[in-house]
């Protein structure tokens, strides 16, 4: 019997809880929630109801192996920097928090993207 999956509303609530666990993270997006810093998105709740976070290469490999998950795929394209957060881990905010903080630190170290706003 397959494990019951979380509804979008449940995932959204857990995603918001994860974002709230980091003082400097700001939730953006009205219909597709995401976080970004300096023009780099580092977490999101996709239209396909998957929570994904951006991790540095060495941590991404460890995360994929430890949680038996996959890279994010959207519109037939594999998003190589994003890993899908399994539902079981999403429900464990304390266990997920270090990865979310790592994601924030990773994009903070990237060169800021130029703003498109005038």
Give the secondary structure arrangement, pairings included:
Layout: H1 8-20, E1 27-28, E2 34-37, E3 40-45, E4 51-54, H2 57-67, E5 71-74, E6 77-85, H3 87-90, H4 93-108
Helix pairs in contact: 1-4
Short description:
The protein is an alpha+beta fold and 118 residues long. The protein has one domain: Yope Regulator, Chain: A (2-Layer Sandwich). The protein is globular and about 45 Å long.
**What's the CATH architecture?**
2-Layer Sandwich
Helix content: 25-40%
Which class best fits the helix and strand makeup?
A: alpha+beta
Between the first and last Cα atoms, what is the distance in angstroms? 54 Å
**Mean residue pLDDT:** 93
Taking all Cα atoms into account, the compactness measure Rg is 14 Å
- Helix run count: 4
Instruction: List unreliable stretches of 5+ residues.
Output: none
CATH topology-level name: Yope Regulator, Chain: A
Spatial strand sequence of the major β-sheet: 1-2-3-4-6-5
* CATH C-level: Alpha Beta
Strand % is 15-25%
Task: List the domain count as a whole number.
Answer: 1
Largest sheet: 6 strands, antiparallel
Count of individual beta strands: 6
> Which overall shape is indicated by the principal axes computed on the Cα atoms?
globular
Order of helices and strands: HEEEEHEEHH
């Amino acid at each position: 019997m397959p494990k019951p999956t979380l509804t979008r509303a449940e995932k959204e609530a857990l995603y918001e809880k994860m974002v709230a666990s980091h003082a400097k993270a700001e939730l953006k997006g009205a219909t597709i929630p995401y976080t970004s810093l300096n023009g780099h998105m580092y977490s999101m709740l996709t239209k396909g109801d998957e929570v994904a976070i951006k991790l540095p290469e060495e941590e991404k490999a460890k995360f994929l192996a430890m949680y038996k998950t996959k890279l994010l795929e959207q519109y037939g394209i594999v998003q190589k920097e994003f890993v899908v957060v399994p539902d079981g881990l999403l429900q464990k905010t304390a266990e997920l928090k270090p990865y979310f903080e790592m994601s924030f630190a990773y994009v903070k170290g990237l060169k800021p993207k130029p703003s498109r706003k005038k």
